[in-house]
Write the structure tokens for this entry.
Amino acid sequence: MTHHVILGAGPAGVIAAETIRKLNPLDAITIIGDEPEPAYSRMAIPYLLMGNINEAGTYLRKSATHFDDLKIKVRVAHVQSVHAATKTVVLDGGETVVFDTLLVATGSRPVTPPIPGIKSDGVHRCWTLADARAIAALAQPGARVLQLGAGFIGCIIMEALAARGVKLSVVEMGDRMVPRMMGPTAGGMIRDWCETKGVEVFTSTKVESIEPGTPLTVRLSNGKTMQADLVISAAGVRPAIGFLENSGITCLLGVLTDEHLQTNVPGVFAAGDCAEAFDKVSGKMIVSAIQPNAAEQARIAATNMVAYARGRAAHAELKGVTQINVLDTLGLISASFGDWQGVPGGEHVELTDKLAGRHLSLQFKDDVLVGCNSVGWTEHVGVMRGLVEGQVKLGRWKDVLQRDPTLLMEAYLACAQGQGDWSGAQDERRR
């Protein structure tokens, strides 16, 4: 009997296991996760902290017998190493698990910045259910909370903390909030918005040290010293692939995969936040740590794992991985798609109305929209994604958008949906 082993019990691992079972009712499937709780979604943790759901609400599958019913074995263990040559996984304690196919779906791990005192009592990450419990105990109304990091994940955590009624300060070493998602204007607008909501924001600032105690004493690079009842480290994440060293599986930033999500080792696949896959918009290999991409990669990898086990060539292909981020920061919606910083030789147009809290930046390569930033333009989010992901040729609509970037819907209908050439009508309307 073929044995499919899946490392990681997050969304990618769970969807892959279910896909394998759907395609093959008899093969053995084992999921190995390193947390004692049932498989859950990390993206649900902020809603847990807000009080919108309980812990069971974070679980990926609601039935306690879901995996048993599917005859999927779930184990709680830490993976020490993988040996591709012998098709074995070594667990803590030295136990080995033999596989016929393997999926690496171990996701990401929070980065721990090299700050003196970062491991003091009262300093927590916000990544696991155990972290959420610790934060909930300390983040009571009126508590002084300092958050290190204002990236995408940091802003989501910030939303949850603000809902708990804490006195919140955020420190970001970049010159703006969400610097890996937003340009200077957009990132600055998000900062300004947070400050109007009562959040103290320090950009271009580092945490230099954290002194243990109750409260904690935090020294910043701007010369300020702050007292905090809770410090949250949200300094970013990186793929959790350290156990693959000397495995024979090629890794760069993440686990390197082909269009079938297969690694350099036949029968070994990767999916989700730990996988490095091809982005059709940028033409680069990227790690895209968002759940929709993880789910799609998991289905494709699982389909090809079953094909490999049956002696068939991989046939399911990843169509591409587009960088997609839509963020709600204390009620302000922002979005970033594709190459939002632009490409060499490209063109761009920008429209900003700070009083209205609206900003739109479009990046073009020839007549294709390759990336965009938006703040406050909620009606255009789906259209922006469709144009960027679809690599839609805009023709003369590119010139129309450069004159008025708010006409994205009309451009999409005309160029992607074939609903006529609206550009002439728009030109007439301006006369």
About this structure: Residues 3-110+238-309 form a domain with the FAD/NAD(P)-binding domain fold (CATH 3.50.50.60).
